[in-house]
Amino acid sequence: MKTLGHALLGGAAAALLAIGGAYAAYAQGGEKPEKPQYGGTLEVATMFATLSALSWDPHDWNWKLNHDTGQFYEQLVAGDLDKSKRKGGKHPFVADAYLATEAQRGELAEKWELVDNPLSVVFTLRKGIMFPEKPGVMQSRELTAEDVVFSFNRLRSSPKALPTYYDFLGDVVAKDRYTVVFNLKEYTAEWDYRLAWGFYSVIMPKEVADAGATNWKNVNGTGPFMLTDFVAGNSNTYTKNPVYWDKEKIGGQDYKLPYLNKLVYRTIKDEATQHAAIRTAKIDLLETINARYVPELKKSAPQLQWAKRLSILGSFMALRNDMKPFDDVRVRRAMNMAINKKEIIEAHYSGEAMMHAYPMYPDWDGYFDSLDKMPASVKELYEYNPKKAKELLKEAGYPNGFTFKMQFCSCAPDHVDLAPLLAAYLEQVGVKAELQPTEYGAFLSAMSTRKHAAGYLMNSSHTNPTTSIRKSFVSGAMWNPAMFTDPKYDAKMNEVVATRDENKRKEMLREMTVEIMDQAPYIWLPTPYVYAAWWPWVKNYGGEMSVGSIRPGPIYARIWIDQELKKKLGY
Q1: Closest CA to 463 of 361, 557, 532
Q2: The domain 8-304+535-568: what is its CATH number?
Q3: Has residue 5 got a pLDDT over 80?
Q4: Which residues contact 84 (CB under 8 A, 6 or more apart)?
Q5: Which pTM does this prediction carry?
Q6: CA 493/CA 190 separation, integer angstroms
Q7: Given 3.10.105.10, 3.90.79.10, 3.40.630.30, 3.30.565.10, which CATH number is that of 313-528?
Q8: Contact present, 178 and 144 (Cβ < 8 Å)
Q9: What is the pLDDT of residues 169-205, one digit of tens each?
Q10: Distance between CA atoms of 201 and 221, rounded to whole angstroms?
Q11: Residue 187's pLDDT is what?
């Protein structure tokens, strides 16, 4: 997609354009970059602005942990922001958990190697990386290989660990102070994701676990910021780590990171309040804005900078395949044909959505096939055909339709509006959906305990090419809300992750994608485009979102605030 990661100027007055011109040119890769400024506070309503932190402890295996702890807990590998589109590279860094091999850089690790005999991955750590002092918890000390061993052994010991996630992994050994060896029982194509930059691979010191890692006041890591305040439902406050190890090269000169003195996450549950906050500069950056609100914001705050991206979250309604009537593929296909997806794109998403962009993401070169390349049996799932939907329902034994419960999260403004729209379409073919809005904690718990409703309207991250299929459609996987089960499909997935040849994996995954779409375990819904907006005093940023698995910490560490420009603009 040509638009991802590009900063777009709003229609500012000539004077404001002159002030922001240098930044705009830099964002397009043309002009010499500005000199960084130190100090200041960045106020952000993040892509998860409606959700407060769900856990501070990696042992809880919570998907959102990296987003909240990635400012202080680091990992072995991260995305290389010097290869971002903003800096002339080809990587937008908007995917939540996908790092192409050439887009990776060592974070805590200086180098790493996959070894065949014995089968293992050897990581060599950077020397001199320090944990800052944390009164009552730990003295400042150097990170060592023992911290990596401790972190992974603690992760694996958790009763909340995802089943089979580390089955490929043998023991983790500190060969010396700076060398860690991960011995593998078998090869998996996901080894770098699961060991080095995934959702469940943060490195923490034993002292934090001993003090109580669930308490935010005890957390401490090697990252660019330290957590210094947390108010549930309101804010996370992070303060500059004075002993942070990393630097950034700009204009041939090295600058110590981070530039900011303080970073604040604002929890704002209402969209209108989010928009008012960015419009009035109560926040500097709003990471996710529904396309329908963009024209008005551009009009009311023309100085805002913009970036557009395809959402990293696939949108769908999972239909429980283990329950009648959704155990019948004819019913599931009928549910798809009953929904006018073109109308949803035009009316609900103001024309800014992609009809088919899940479970594969269009940016994954070689893994994604566009809808026009799909077989007719898949294409018809995206075509509005209430007549055929009724015929299929009759054929399956439901000539008068049926009633089912549709559960959705009250935390997702998009789905709060979309759920009644879907229900109205389904009613036209005799299917009645009883809407069940649910607060996020209960919504997630319902799925993880398999007590969720027969219809479960949700977003799920694309993650990365192998994981997107594995986590969503393999028997027993936690993020398989359709409860889809097919031993032959499971066996194909096992073959994929055991295959070293990426081109072969691409071919296999394209075939598996067609197969699962044909089975229609979900009502496949359009994937919207969303926008990020920020004020022009937010420098060294172009809409990047993640350098690992929803890890924005290194992105924020490289942002600086142009205090003079902020004053010139009257703030």
Answers
A1: 361
A2: 3.40.190.10
A3: no
A4: 5, 91, 92, 93, 542, 544
A5: 0.86
A6: 12
A7: 3.10.105.10
A8: yes
A9: 999 999 999 999 999 999 999 999 999 999 999 999 9
A10: 13
A11: 96
